[in-house]
Amino acid sequence: MSGDEFGGRVAIVTGGASGIGAAVAEELLARGADVAVFDLNGDSVEGPAFGVSVDVSDRRSVDAGVAAVLERFGRLDVVVNCAGIGAFGTVEDSSDEDWARVLDVNVQGVARVCAAAMPALRESDAAAIVNLTSIAATTGIQQRALYSATKGAVHALTLAMAADHVHDGVRVNAVSPGTTDTPWVQRMVANVADPEAERAAMNARQPTGRLVTPAEVAGAVAYLASPRSASTTGSVVAVDGGFGG
Ligand code: NAI
């Protein structure tokens, strides 16, 4: 890893206040990028990242966030879409309101941020978008109907955007993590009757016997965000400990 691999380049990381997004922000900063973190509580982000309060389900908020980044840094090269929310249950368990809310954040949120960023990305000589999908997009997992549908949509959106923007020089790829040890998963584990047994069962479901780490996901994101992957667009890279294999 080179400390100046992303020197002079500017990245937006949505959902960068927690979990995978925070690890991505840290990785890109360590490789020399200027990083703007878009999150619901972006103003409270500490450290070298530029925190911006953005709700990806609100177009005006997204537009204002991108404008703030351009005002501060004058350019934009990389967008990593990590903001996302979960949903449990079968199709019978999710209301129309649940569908609207989770689609709005997980799918339209990605499209909104990409659309707002696209004019600036077209100006970059090394533009890259990296979306976060999930093994849930390509593997049937119980109690994840709505969530899986949103991640399947992000997978398809990644391929479609890659095709649309290949001649603009904007590469679009995705990373598909397996169960990753983030505050999201830690909250899930904490909410069951026997958290220790739940964690052991979760580890046992992974072919590697353990959860994926946020840093492992961030490493794949950094590769897809960097010109080292200049010939890669429309790809979905699994970081799932062999779960989907
Ligand atoms: P997390 O809950 O730790 O972090 C998600 C971040 O997104 C939070 O900081 C939250 O405030 C932010 N966010 C939520 N709604 C937002 C909105 N409307 N506008 C702006 N920011 C918003 O979650 P984690 O685990 O780091 O997940 C990140 C991404 O990775 C998600 O897209 C998730 O679907 C995906 N993923 C996670 C896996 C896991 O096992 N943790 C596995 C596969 C995919």
TrEMBL record:
Ketoreductase domain: residues covered: 9-178
Q: Give the InterPro entries listed for this entry.
A: KR_dom (IPR057326), NAD(P)-bd_dom_sf (IPR036291), Sc_DH/Rdtase_CS (IPR020904), SDR_DHRS6-like (IPR051122), SDR_fam (IPR002347)
One annotated GO molecular function? oxidoreductase activity
PROSITE patterns to which the protein is assigned, alphabetical:
ADH_SHORT
Keywords associated with the record: Oxidoreductase
Matching Pfam families: adh_short_C2
Please give the family membership noted in the entry: Belongs to the short-chain dehydrogenases/reductases (SDR) family.
What is the recorded name of this protein? Answer: SDR family oxidoreductase
Native species of this protein?
Pseudoclavibacter terrae
